[in-house]
Structures are given as C-alpha cells and as structure tokens.
Amino acid sequence: MQKPGQSNRSSHRCLAIYTVRTAAVGRDKRTRLGHRDSSQRVPALAQAAAMPLLEETTLPQVHPPTLPVVIIGNGPSGICLSYLLSGHKPYLDTATVHPNPILYRKLQESKQLSITEQDLEYLSEGLEGRSRNPVAVLFDTLLHPNADFGYEFPPVLQWKRDKQQHVPHLVLGRATPGGAWHAMEGSMLTISLGIWMELPGVNYRDLTNGKRRDVTSDRATPEEISSYYRNYVKLKGLQNNFVDNTYVTSVQKLCRGQEGEGLENRHTDQGDGGVGDGGNQGFEGNGVDKGGGGTLWEVRGYQQVQNDTHVPFSLFAENIVLATGASDSPVHLGAEGEDLPFVFRSISDLGLAISRRKLDMNSDPVLIVGAGLSAADAVLCACGSNIRVMHVFRKSVDNPDLIFKQLPKTLYPEYHKVYNMMSSQTYTNVAPSSASDRPQAVSIASSVCAKMCPKPQFAAGNMAGTASVSLFPVYTSFPEHGVVSFQSDMTCLLQGNDSLKAFKISMALVLIGTNPNLFFLKGNGQYLGQDPTKPISCTQNPIDVHPYTYECANEPGLFAMGPLVGDNFVRFLKGGALGIASCLLKRLKKKEKLISNGGNNFI
C-alpha cells in the first residue's frame, strides 16, 4: 500500500481482477486489489490478452467489497471531490471578512460547522455569478471573493483534516491525474487565470514558482496546469484513491433484495447492459432508498498495464460520480466527405503538419471551421506560421453570443486580434482593386455542378491557384457560411447566404466543440439530460441534477459534475465537489459508514 509522500506509482498499480473466467476450468478466479500472487495473476493476464473485456452479463459469484463511492474521471473535478471525501473540510476563516455582507452574516451564524455540514441552499440564496448552478457560485465566491470584478481577495475559508470524515472511494482515470489537460497544446494560454484553475489547499503560484509574465501573466499554459494537478494529488496524499490507465466500459444498476439475500440483477437485455432508463422504475417496493441506500452499482472495464495488456476489473459501489468532462467526442458537421483523411478535429494535427513542413506559405489554404476559442487558437497557430487560412463559421460577426465579446481585451489580446480579423477580413470585404486576386465566388449553377461532379469547377484567380488575397494574404473569414461537402481531390464546397463556393484546401480543421461520451451508460446516458429526447451536450443539454446535491434527477445514487452539468470552467466545477461531498457525508453519517483510519483499506 502506497503511503502519502512516496513516489507516485499509481500508473503501475493494478485493479483487482475480481472476475476472470478461465476456459480450462470454467470457474472464476478472484484476487483482491493490489494482490501480486503470480499463480492467480498470470492466468488473468493471459486471459485478458485473449479477451480484453469481461462478458457484460457475467456477475461475480462472490462479489467484491462494496465501495461507498466510485468516481469516473480523474480531471480537476475528480481530484477536487477526492480531496473533500478524504476528510478535508472547509470552515469560515474568522480572520477574514467576505465582501458580501449578507453572505458573511450567514457564514458567521454557524461558523463552528464546516461548510459541508451547513445548508448549502440557504448559503447560496441570492448569490449571482457566471454559473447556472448555485453551489458553484457559492464555492467560487468563498474561494475567490468578487473575482468577476477584477479583485484578488484571499479565500474566506480555512481547511481542516478530519480523518473520521474520510469516505472510502476510488477515482478511475484513463491517464495520470489531470484528465484532458495532459492532451492539450502545451504552449497556449488558458482562458481562466491560473489562480482560478487551482484546487483547494494548494496555491497555484506556489507550484509554478510565482511566474508572472505581463498583464496576461496569470493565465497559465496547459502544461503548467497539468503539472499542477499531478503534483496536487501527491502533495495532498491522495495517491491511494487514484487508479490510472483505467477504461470504464459498463455501469449497471443492481438491487439488493429486501431481506439482503444476495444481489438481484435488475437490468434487462435491452441494449448493451448500461444503466436502465426507467430511473427508479422497477425498484419501488424493493426496499430501495431514494437516497441511493438500496441501489448498488457495478462498474466494469479494464486497466492497461505493462506491455499494453488489458486486465479486466469489476467493482461494486453504492454511489457513482460522473466526472468525465466534455472532450471525449468531437462534434461533427454532418457534411459529405467529412471522414476524408485531410479533415481533422484537433489543433495538434495542425501543429504536427507545420512541424513536419507539410504546410508553408505556398500551400493551399487551411480551412478552419468554428467560431470558438479552439478555432481561434488554430487561426493563431496557422497565421503565426504565415500559412493561409480560410475561416468559416455560421454566426454573424455581430452575434452577441460570440465568446470573444465576453472576454476583456486587456486579458485576451490575441483572441480579440482574431475577432478583429473575423470582422474586417471577410470574403466580401476585400477591396475591389484586388478582386482578381481574392477567392472568387462561383455561380449557383456552377457550384451545384461542382457538388455533383468529381472535380468542382473554379473561377479564375480563386484560392486553388497560387494567387493570394493581396490586401489580406494570410487570412480570410467566411461569416454565415457552412460546409456542404469535402471532395477527395481536397476541395470543399461552402454555402453562403446567396451562393455556393468551391475552394481548394490543403487540410481542414473542424473545431465546433466536443460532446461527452457516456457510452458505458444505457442509451449513452441520454435519459439523464434536461431534455431526455436529445443527446447529452455540455452546452445545449447538460445532465439534469439536483441544484444542491448534484444527484441525477432521474437516477438516485448517480451524481454528475463539471462540464456534464454545464460548469465548463474549473473555478465553477469545484462547486460540484462541494455539493456532492456535502450530500454524501450527511447521508453516510446517518448510516455510520464513515471510517476512522483515513485510508482505503481495500487497496
């Protein structure tokens, strides 16, 4: 068992293989977490290589110990929740004064109690902020008072460790702690200030040597943030809660019988064995506590260990927390030819093409689709290397919902530079004197022909040739345009307000957002959304949760936090950790299931 302070070896630790069916004897072998007995483990590894995933319909004959909580996702959401579940409790720091007098008075009324023990609805009442979730606004103002007004007041909280309040849990993640931050471009700057990215109890600047570059200096690089999160887990002694390189493939809801006689599998044969979409239907009258007390969850998947071997695992938990973030599945245009090899969905692909010198100033333009910050980053990357850019987006440049209109110019000068180009360097704004050199619109008739024929027709002087726009030789925007199709000869067809236009391109980057991938839930978890008839979307259709506990409205015992509930910024997703921890601590305290040894004794 690894102790806090030792080197982090969680990436080499294995989950128990609770159920590995061997063909030779036709029975289950079972090991405990961390057990290294080669007589049991070698057959398991050999079997895992032949069959990477467990049969979804197989249940353990003797089920493993039941954890109170399993957290799926080891990004900042999962890390923060692990910290709170490990006995760390926030109290009002009596040496500070919150600038909101009403909130400060409420905090003083029960200052002897931790925030997790208090009424979060009462504390959140009347607060306003940039999150739709009231607890997120509450926790943010406690950690960063008046941050939206440009102030940097100290937190009004002090943290105390109470080992009696430790909730046993595991955090399952596909890589090392930090989640998607490890995969992001290391040289770009985050949208949020570095101090807004920090987690409770560890100052961000302390781990980054207090770097301050300029007025934008407090914005961090993804490399700095991922390093901060990785070190945070070590500094707070949370390593034993984390199991890296794990891939969850199935989450199923089971039910204990009224008499406690074993387990009854309540999922049906419909679909692929995920969570049933009846919410609590089928469990009424079976002794199921609406607070998740009678529900049991089975989590299945595999862990990738040495030599890329996949080792299956199975865990039982009373509560599941979805903290998977939003970066799993890029959104598709639905355009013809979108699966062609020159169409990409990550800015890293652009950087790779530039570093390998597949693109230069003489290349055909790079098509960038999208009006968000990822698209803006791609524009900056391409223009910085003097590569021609066609920037296509559906919104008008005056649309108030454009993200650039919400960012202060002093903090985000590079994004406002992109917005200025989007507004002034449009396809229709090029000076008439340079019309022969700029991209030329094709008539509707010839554009339709371009769509129908193998090789789209071009007018003279378009971007397919060597000529460039003389006034703006690098960048041209196409507001209120959409992509109709991509062709195998590396041409694209664009639809504007009044015509279709065809252009030759060197590559396309479709950067129009990402959606969470909840494939391990029944129906991809769609029934959990605020609109259960539509797929889960972090911006358009987040998971419907209780505003103060973050428990799914349609699934007791299942919680969600972070981007899945609409909190796309780290400063607000921490509120989900507060709400969930408060709910679970109160619930488990009633059941006397908190442990006093301060560690996970099943690892």
Automatic annotation (TrEMBL):
InterPro entries noted in UniProt: FAD/NAD-bd_sf, OSGIN1/2
Biased composition (Gly residues): 271-287
GO BP term, pick one: negative regulation of cell growth
Gene3D superfamilies xrefs: FAD/NAD(P)-binding domain
Disordered as annotated region, ranges: 259-287
Top-level taxon: Eukaryota
A GO molecular-function annotation: growth factor activity
Basic and acidic residues: compositionally biased ranges: 259-270
Name of protein: Oxidative stress-induced growth inhibitor 2
Name of the gene this protein is made from: osgin2
